[in-house]
Amino acid sequence: MPGLIIRDDLSADQLRALARRERNGRTASRLLALANALSGMSRTEAAKAAGMDRQTLRDWVHRYNDAGVSGLHDRPKGHPKPKLTEGEEAALANVVFRGPDPDKDGVSTWTTQALADWIAERFGKRMNRRSVSRILRRNGFSHQKARPSHPQKDPKAGEAFQKGGSNAP
Questions:
Q1: I need a labelling partner for 118 at 20 to 30 A (CA). Which of 56, 79, 100, 112 fits?
Q2: pLDDT tens, 36-91?
Q3: Any idea where the domains of the chain sit in the sequence?
């Protein structure tokens, strides 16, 4: 690669051996591209053989020269900012733990869609029901839910039924 010098503390054969042992395919192809360039291929040919373009190979050469083989690994990506703050997640957990009030909340059991609607109404943030499910799992809630009961059920009638049916005294 005329015009661009590659550090030579590792030979082309050593780089190829590292590429064979590398578990990450992207890093292995970068190692092979550098090995090809060190063994005399043109920058264009070395890059094409590794599945990249010449400019990309140049960028990886700079990273390799600065940080060695560890510079060829992908850098960690940032995580998106959470949609709900800690306080909002705590309020959501409290609401789920307390359970819905049919008169106030309009539902007899919390579903992820009902919770997404509650979040939109309370915090003004639109969320997908799968995102709500992810937040609930992260906070220790499982997918299981209690057996539904009708909000206007009569406890005395249920007790009489348990004792012997509808004809019990």
A1: 79
A2: 999 999 989 999 999 999 999 999 999 999 999 999 999 888 888 889 999 999 99
A3: 12-72, 86-145
